[in-house]
Design a protein that fits this description.
homodimer; mainly alpha; 9 helices; 68% helix
Chain lengths: 210, 210
């Protein structure tokens, strides 16, 4: 424990010295509630306790801030969902792990507005530009993870040979993102269990013995 | 054909006399692109060619405009999706018809930003208030249509007796709304076919013979 009396003599770290990373993590959380279009420098400055000019030192435009926020959200998503799932061996175990980790990150409320990318894409789907393109690229990257895992499960023999890995990824992602939308709207973890059941049904129906 | 020379002598109908319905139909379309929060009286006035004061004669507040827009979107959705589907007899035929009509209304681009309610709910899911509540109630109403149809299909004997109608509605809606999100993002009708295939797979797997 620090002695209370010494606190005032310890130099307070300059507010302006707060790391870019801290600001961007707050921006990523805020964007899932206020929208990435609503992510104004003024609002973010208030949320992290910086002056607008302090924040402008880090990001010269709203678009630069939005793009940096997306990269930070991507790093968080990789650390919370993709990296743990890739610990599972390639095959049906990894298909399950990707789905489980996705649903678990919703349940842990990693972002207050649910899946960061679903939130951003729903907001800006009809607004073309670099922010839109980058968000869609990362959504496609996630879809690619599911598709690769489904293909590896098929190679392993856990999925019927006449199934289409892209179609399987589509069906898995549908359940994950619908659970996300329902969970964000109602906050009821039962919707995450519905997705788990839907995914089990799907994996059973595509198994060679199914 | 009207004789060109007579045009200027025909009294132009008062712009202010344009019906509330015409304004609200434009508002419903616009809300799926700009967002229902972005549905300002100024922007809508420009879109329908009315003065701001002309529009204020119809709607005294942004919230009144937003709520009226949701009711109009609901009427459009009923006319385009629900009423045609309810022509099918209760049972598995109606389950299929609800899904088919939903996907067909996406393919016809009834709303430029896809499903009106998915668009509004994704935008305002974390913004409590009457607009949020009414949009969620209509989303729940749609879910109820799917659930009732699934229950009727089970009563008819087209669905295994140990299946849960709510779970079936969840899985159907997941495919419909994921197809919506993908179609809006990419504009590719192939995503609608993926949803059709996913729904066929599901209906096969819950059929008593499956």
């Amino acid at each position: 424990m620090t002695e209370p009396g010494t606190l005032s003599s310890v130099p307070t770290p300059s507010k302006e010295a707060r790391s870019r990373d801290t600001i961007l993590r707050e921006a990523a959380r805020l964007a899932t509630v206020e929208g990435i279009e609503g992510l104004s420098i003024a609002r973010l400055a208030a949320a992290v306790g910086l002056s607008k000019s302090g924040l402008f030192a880090h990001f010269r435009s709203k678009e630069e801030l939005q793009l940096a926020t997306i990269e930070t959200a991507d790093r968080i998503f990789r650390a919370e969902v993709i990296d743990p799932a890739l610990q599972a061996p390639p095959g049906i175990a990894r298909v399950r792990a990707l789905c489980d980790e996705f649903l678990a990150h919703l349940e842990r409320d990693v972002f207050p507005g649910g899946c960061f990318f679903a939130s951003v894409v729903a907001e800006i789907d009809t607004h073309p530009g670099p922010v839109h393109d980058r968000a869609l690229a990362l959504v496609a990257d996630w879809f690619g993870q599911l598709e690769t895992a489904a293909r590896e499960a098929q190679a392993e023999g856990s999925v019927k040979s006449d199934e289409d890995a892209t179609q399987i990824a589509f069906e898995l992602d549908a359940h994950l993102l619908f659970a996300n939308a329902q969970y964000v709207a109602g906050g009821d973890p039962a919707t995450l269990d519905r997705a788990r059941r839907a995914i089990e049904r799907l994996l059973n129906s595509i198994a060679p013995s199914g």
